[in-house]
Amino acid sequence: MDSAMPSGKFIAYYRVSTARQGRSGLGLEAQRAAVHEYLNGGAWTLISETVEIESGKRSDRPELTAALTACRLHKATLVIAKLDRLARNVAFVSDLMESGVEFVACDFPTANRLTIHILAAVAEHEALAISARTIAALEAARARGTKLGGYRGRSGTAADCERARAAQTALADQRAGDLTATVQAIQLDGHFSLRSIGQELTRRGIPTARGGVWNSSQVSNVLSRIALLQNRGER
C-alpha cells in the first residue's frame, strides 16, 4: 500500500493486555485513535473493529481469526495500529501469512506481507530451506537430462499440477468455511432459494471469490462445498 489516501474496505484489529495496557502506550483507545487518524480522508469503509484481549501466555488468537475471516469475506484489508510488537509475534505472523489477507499498519503504512515475511525470517527459515532444496533437486534432474516440462509444452510436472489442484481445493474449502456461518444466518432469516441467498450475500457486501456479484450457480457450488466440509466434520 502506498502513501496515497486510504481507499477500499478495512477491518481493524486491536490487541491489548489488561496487565500492560496502561504502561505500553498500546491501549485500546490509543490504537483506535491511530487507526481513525490513518483513515482520515480517502474513499474508505471501516466494516468492523475487533479487539483481542490476551495475556502474555496466550498463543491462540480467536479474534484475529475472526478478523481475517471477515477480511476474506468482504475482500477487505486488515488495519492495525502498530506493527512493531505484532511483527515479532509468531502466532500473529503465522496466521497473517497463511490467511492471504492484505494488511496495513498505521505506524508503517509502506509495510506489506513481504515486509512481515522478512521480519519473520527465522520462523520462515525451514520453508525457505525446503524451497531451496527443491530447486536444487530440479536443477540436478535437468542437468541429468530429465524432462521437467508437461505435455505439449505445458510447464510443470504431474506432481506440480497435483499440488496446484490441491492448493485450489484448499482455497475453495477455506472460502466455503468462511461463508458457512453467514449462509446459515441468511437461511435462518428465511432465504432458501439460490437466487435469494445470492442476493442477500451481495446485499451484505460479501463478494464472490473473484470479487463479483453472486449468481445461483456460484451459490450452489458454495452450498455443496459447505455440505462436503460438514460431512467431513471440518466445520
Give the gist of this structure.
The protein is of the alpha/beta class and 235 residues long. The protein contains ten helices and four strands, in the order βααβαβααβααααα. Mean pLDDT is 77; it is low at 150-155.
Care to describe what's here?
The chain has 235 residues and is α/β, with parallel strands linked by helices. Helices cover 55% and strands 11% of the residues. The chain has 10 helices and 4 strands. Helix 3 runs parallel beside helix 5, helix 8 packs across helix 10 and helix 9 crosses helix 10. The protein folds into 2 domains: 8-119, Resolvase, N-terminal catalytic domain (Rossmann fold, 3-Layer(aba) Sandwich); 156-231, no CATH class. The model is unreliable at 150-155 (pLDDT under 50).
Keywords:
4 strands, 2 domains, Rossmann fold, about 240 residues, four-stranded parallel β-sheet, alpha/beta, single chain
Write the layout of secondary structure elements.
Elements: E1 8-16, H1 21-24, H2 28-38, E2 44-53, H3 62-74, E3 77-80, H4 84-87, H5 90-99, E4 103-105, H6 113-119, H7 121-143, H8 158-188, H9 194-203, H10 216-231
Helix pairs in contact: 3-5, 8-10, 9-10
The dominant shape is globular
Number of helical elements: 10
CATH architecture of the largest domain, by name, is 3-Layer(aba) Sandwich
Helix content: 40-55%
The pLDDT mean sits at 77
Quickly count the domains. 2
Radius of gyration: 21 Å
